[in-house]
Amino acid sequence: MSIGTALRQLHGKRGSHKGRSLQLQMVSMIDVVFLLLVFFLLTANFRSREGFLPAELPRRVTRAELAEIEPLELVIATLGNGQCQVSVAGEGGFVFRSSSDGGGFDQLREQLSQTLQAQRRYTEDPIKLMPLTQTRWDHVVKTYDVIRQLDLQNVIFAVAN
To answer: Coil, strand, or helix at residue 128?
Structure first.
């Protein structure tokens, strides 16, 4: 076989594909690009730099400031005659008794205000309301209303035994 015949045979084979057009397979390339995009999105770090975040260094704290403020504990009880009794748990304090119709909570506000001033408490100091198990809910709500009238903001509810 001569070189000429080999070239003609090769040219003839190539010529037989003239009806078809040559196409690139784009689907696999799109898959690869999509996988790369997903990889970079999942591994990217979108946090802002710390230099741009507003930060304030803590000031020096004294030993007295580290002590946690004990809450003023108010025990609320409903007496047998329907009166409400509010007392300060622990030593000292006041005992308040409402009238049988549920009135008289103005007196509680005055006594509680005096107790707060005597103990040098602030409006941010915690107040713990501790109703006894048989206390009427009405008395708890009225006591809470008195506390809110005095602009006390940190109220904790607990159950007294």
So the answer is: strand
Residue 14 lies in a domain: no
Please give the residue range of the domain that contains residue 77: 68-157
Q: What is the pLDDT of residues 131-150, one digit of tens each?
A: 888 888 888 888 888 888 88
pLDDT, tens only, 2-29: 666 665 666 555 555 555 666 777 888 8
Count H helices, E strands: the chain?
Answer: 5, 5
The 10 Å Cβ neighbour count of residue 72 is 21
Average pLDDT score over residue span 101-129 = 82
With b for 16 or more beta-carbon neighbours within 10 A and e for fewer, the 128-142 pattern comes to bbbbeeebeeebbeb
Domain for residue 20, yes or no? Answer: no
Name the amino acid, one letter, at 44.
A
Tell me the pTM: 0.54
**130, 74 Cβ separation under 8 angstroms:** yes
- d(Cα 40, Cα 49) in Å, to the nearest integer? 19
The answer to whether residue 41 sits within a structural domain is no
Q: Is residue 118 one of the residues assigned to a domain?
A: yes
Q: What is the CATH number of the domain that holds 132?
A: 3.30.420.270
